[in-house]
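Database export, one record per block. Field names are fixed; values are copied verbatim from the stored entry.
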Amino acid sequence: MASVTVNPADVAKVQALLGDLKSKYKSVMTTSINKTLTTVRTQATARIGNELNLKAARIKKDFTMQKANFSDMSGAIRATGEPVGLVQFGAKQTLKGVSVKVLRSSSRTVVKHAYIAARGGKEHVYWRKNRMPGTGKWPVGKKTRVRWSTVSPRYKRPVERLTGPRIEDIFAQPKVFDPVSIQAQHVYLKNVDDKIADILRRHRG
């Protein structure tokens, strides 16, 4: 989690810079914090995207923002969620299994005997641990010359949906979190300066 919290010293400094308009300090603080959180989410998404072979939209999906308001001048951005489905990592069905690329720094690998299937309207990568007794074959569909609809129910083993890392775990890694956190402080201070300048400019006409 990355957060921005206002302390009394911050408030006093902003009020001093606003002068006669010091009553508008809450507007300065909340606007600056919320703009900073949006920037942090964008930067965190980009850095996580440098690590994982995922689309930005999928990474952003696991981020939530707690925005600041006049009653609580603090904000935070969190990454939460389940492990990302393996199908999101450029999954491609092959005769031997499913080819995926999870890390940007790695090559594509094949998860043997895995298969892509739609359940509940969504595609996922699945894997069935056990072979059919006496056949030496994996009942995973047409790609392996076995039609699942023809397999006896007593041979149908439970399937496992395969997943990759969680977004929150990658976000928590120092090489991702630390630079994002440091940059957030610089962005916040700039946002404060810009908002103060905007208020003073509009007041002076």
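Remark 1: The first strand starts at residue 2 and ends at 5.
Remark 2: The two ends are 40 Å apart (CA to CA).
End of record.
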